[in-house]
Amino acid sequence: MKLLVAVKRVVDFNVRIRVKSDGSDVELANVKMGINPFCEIAVEEGVRLREAGVATELVVVTLGPEAAAEQLRHALALGADRALHYVTKESVTDETLTPLTVARALQKVCEREMPSLVLLGKQSIDSDNNQVGQMLSALCDWPLATFASAIKLVEGELQVTREIDGGLETLGMGLPAVVTVDLRLNEPRFASLPNIMKAKRKPIESAPFAALGVEPADQTRLLGVMAPAPRRAGIRVGSVDELLDRLKNEAKVLP
């Protein structure tokens, strides 16, 4: 059983986001980049499934600039077996690399690799679209489970527990399938120094994005980016009565 995990290069989640002075985009110059946290959870789950003997190979793939190879090395250090890097040029930006374009590209990768299970993060922390997994499932005509908090294989059937508004729901489905993972699925391991050194010897197959035969679609246009309005500083109150008085007479949120 082969697993395919898609990962994305994003601004590191510990970095404080800054908007460019002209409001055209987020400042990326000299900013630390990292693997999307939800993608890292997907990689960790793939590693655990392989360690449990459920899978025999774990392949990670990314679509992005040459610098995205760093995120693939991180995934290899976590335990992935090999990596695929479809390198985008400067003309292929986040505006042209839309969720549908990404899904079409991953469909081509699935046709070449023929995985039994595709794992993705439920969303990326930069665009927050939460669309690629659903689109990939539709394009491949494979079963889909989103927001997974538990994954296991029982007698050839994939059982996925997913988080819904009312609690938890468990789905059973055949393979191949697509699963998008949520925060509570696992806690990714720390990439140890020996594993980082081993990752340098693992193969990364690099090819231009154009090799997939997918034309980036200019479907969206970024009009501008702005920082949220600054919040007023909080205050301390001495009692519940004072709190209620301030909520009623100052904040005007109580009748």
Would you give an account of this structure?
- The chain has 255 residues and is of the alpha/beta class.
- It contains 6 helices and 11 strands.
- Strands 9-8-7-10-6-1-4-5-11 form a 9-stranded mixed sheet, with helices on both faces. The chain has a two-stranded antiparallel ribbon with strand order 2-3.
- Strand 8 and strand 9 form a beta hairpin.
- Helix 2 crosses helix 5 and helix 3 packs across helix 4.
- The radius of gyration is 21 Å and the shape is globular.
- It starts with a strand and ends in a 6-residue tail after the last helix.
- The model has no long low-confidence stretch (mean pLDDT 91).
Mean pLDDT: 91
Strand content: 25-35%
SSE string? EEEHEHEHEHEEEEHEH
Strands side by side in the biggest sheet:
9-8-7-10-6-1-4-5-11
Rg, rounded, reads 21 Å
Q: Which regions contain 5 or more consecutive residues with pLDDT less than 50? A: none
Number of continuous helical runs: 6
Number of strands: 11
Keywords, separated by commas or semicolons:
single chain; 255 residues; alpha/beta; nine-stranded mixed beta sheet; 6 helices
Short description:
This protein has 255 residues and is of the alpha/beta class. The protein contains six helices and eleven strands. The termini are far apart.
